[in-house]
Amino acid sequence: MPRNHLPDHDAPTRGGGWIPHGYHLETHSHADGQLVYAAVGAVATTTARGTWVAPAGRVTWTPPGFGHSHRFYGRTDIRLFTVPAALCPELAPVPSVFAVNALLREALLALTGDREPRPGADDRLRAVVVDELAAAPDDQSLHLPEPHDDRLRAVTGLVHADPGIDATLSELGRRAGASERTLSRLFQAELGMGFHRWRTILRVHYALALLTDGRSVTDTAIECGWSNPSTFIDAFTEIVGQTPGRYQAGFRDRP
């Protein structure tokens, strides 16, 4: 498949290309599993279970049958690779994000590149990819779960609409018609984390998009709700695994 074209939703094996900032691929599903790797830029994959953001250095995994959409941040060199359904039981049964080590990166780039493989080469590389991912822990740090309870959805919707909103859970609860105590219980029961942790991950998601689009670290911090850039840098580094400046430097000089 030419590297300058995205495959159709049901494309059989592999492909990719350069995607402009903000491009959105509507909800769809596949009969096989799919790996999406941003060699440059970042991709957000959304399912009914929430949103996973994968900057360069991580790969998203969507098992067969899961409806999902993608949004791309920055000019993204996206690589799409299908895992045949017969191999999918070896990988996670739910959408996930995994860190990409050097071996996995090179295998993914080779599988989605323009080269003419020798007979059997793709099968051998595919086995490497599956082996590496089967042994890798799911990286939950950038997973933003979404609620089902209407009261909780009302609150999270307010934060989605304005990630920088400076309101307590009690204040948001009054707007949503629910008490702080009830909402705190629901955050833990449905999302497995407290409100502040959930909002921090959401803000980092938005920060990744802004940084990838060239926004400065200070402007990104302010827009996403941090009054102190150093606090933003600490939160970003804890979740993403690198500072905002190092993250930007990784793609600033790419084509």
Secondary-structure blueprint:
Elements: E1 14-19, E2 24-28, E3 33-47, E4 50-55, E5 58-62, E6 68-83, E7 96-99, H1 102-111, H2 121-135, E8 143-144, H3 150-161, H4 169-176, H5 180-191, H6 195-212, H7 217-223, H8 229-240, H9 244-252
Helix pairs in contact: 1-2, 3-4, 4-5, 6-8
Characterization of the model:
The chain is α+β, with helices and mostly antiparallel strands and 255 residues long. It has two domains: 14-142, Jelly Rolls (Sandwich); 143-252, Homeodomain-like (Arc Repressor Mutant, subunit A), CATH 1.10.10. Helix content is 40%, strand content 23%. It is built from nine helices and eight strands. It has helices spanning 102-111, 121-135, 150-161, 169-176, 180-191, 195-212, 217-223, 229-240, 244-252; strands at 14-19, 24-28, 33-47, 50-55, 58-62, 68-83, 96-99, 143-144. Strands 1, 2, 3, 4, 5, 6, 7 and 8 form an eight-stranded antiparallel beta sheet that branches. Helix 1 runs antiparallel to helix 2, helix 3 packs across helix 4 (169-176) and helix 4 (169-176) packs across helix 5 (180-191). The protein starts with 13 loop residues before the first strand and ends with a helix. It comes from Kineosporia mesophila. It holds the Pfam family HTH_18. This is Helix-turn-helix transcriptional regulator.
Summarize the structure.
With 255 residues, this protein is of the alpha+beta class. The protein has helices at residues 102-111, 121-135, 150-161, 169-176, 180-191, 195-212, 217-223, 229-240, 244-252; strands at 14-19, 24-28, 33-47, 50-55, 58-62, 68-83, 96-99, 143-144. The relative contact order is 0.12.
